[in-house]
């Protein structure tokens, strides 16, 4: 077949509101019709797929529907456009199998996360170490000049702000910018109900404090964020870990069973790009989760920190979008997408708004107004949406490369997640390899990884590690990643022979 002219779709505003009607989902159906044979291997890597025009004719849909479908498939790294040649199945890194769904015990546990976690976090900023241990993106991923300009503009325009006490829920301009931002997550929030916080971590802490007492049971994904376990421990809460699938997230059947059998006081979940699995719940499951918590009157603390990094539009839609009863407390921040150093987050706590606001006033008061104004400026700048898209593309290429290096260098039988966005990989080592021993061996070579036990209150995941590949990325980091695999291979060979 002669080469066809490239049909490069016009950029769409991003993040886009999630689809809401059958018409809007047509492009997703078309995308899925192409995605299925790619995932099954029926369409091979590098194989040409129909042009936009051909597919529109075949499927009896408009050109723009196909353009949108192809854009979705590109975002999911399933296809790629080649200039002047057309669209092809993407040449992806060799695939390793994904980890099994988790199966934590059915009862709750007090939390006692070891000092190991603190060590891993402190090494993340130690220049003597190459760190894959923390989920911290590095500066070069962000529009640093744009951030600097926004801060100096705010300093110029709002000179008086530094000498004013910042009392109240946060600067109105930022709260309005957050409400606008939330439209991209499918949520219509009233800016008056939004509270500005010190990152997402504080938002989650405040929500938990508002709805629980020491000794209460909190249901959460398994494995879960180390930061969540630290909060639970500090508040003397019990963790009830729920089976979680590495791609589709929290098992809602298991959560329903937990509601029936355990005194669950709150659910704390990351429905999009959970940490460390990188799982994202399908849209129908999000709707069901909103219904389940409403029926039981149990608060869901929803962490949307990573939603803007999700490759597929429908995975960016928050559970909060389906909340009609105020049972979802949505928490977010811009630490992973705009500027980690500005350290601002937000929460809309539904029916617990007043309690959360009071706790915030007592706990930490207001914020540096200047930074709030700079963030509001950044969120409302015209190029803001396309910066997210750029970030997703950069990270996707990085993760793909890292998965390729893992496939080449880790021992046979290794499993690794294939997250649809974000920069966190969860690795299951074969043959019961001890990740704490691997951690120690890597540390001796000034490489830091996060051992799996950090991510559970149950002592599970000893054979797993988490790698964050959002930090610096250069030859030394590639070599370090290969080296982790070599060390693991040597350990595997020793234990086999
Ligand atoms: C799932 C999750 N929630 C919250 C946080 C903390 O966010 P912030 O830095 O905005 O406080 C992290 C940080 O890694 C995280 O992974």
TrEMBL record:
One of its GO terms (molecular function) is DNA binding. This is DNA-binding transcriptional MocR family regulator. Residues 24-92 form the HTH gntR-type domain. Keywords: DNA-binding, Pyridoxal phosphate, Transcription, Transcription regulation. Pfam families: Aminotran_1_2, GntR. Coiled coil: none annotated. In the C-terminal section; belongs to the class-I pyridoxal-phosphate-dependent aminotransferase family. Residues 1-18 have a biased composition (Pro residues). It comes from Sphaerotilus uruguayifluvii. Residues 1-21 are annotated as: Disordered. The keyword Lipoprotein does not apply. CDD domains: AAT_like (cd00609), WHTH_GntR (cd07377). SUPFAM superfamilies: PLP-dependent transferases, Winged helix' DNA-binding domain. InterPro entries: Aminotransferase_I/II_large, HTH_trans_reg/aminotransferase, PyrdxlP-dep_Trfase, PyrdxlP-dep_Trfase_major, PyrdxlP-dep_Trfase_small, Tscrpt_reg_HTH_GntR, WH-like_DNA-bd_sf, WH_DNA-bd_sf.
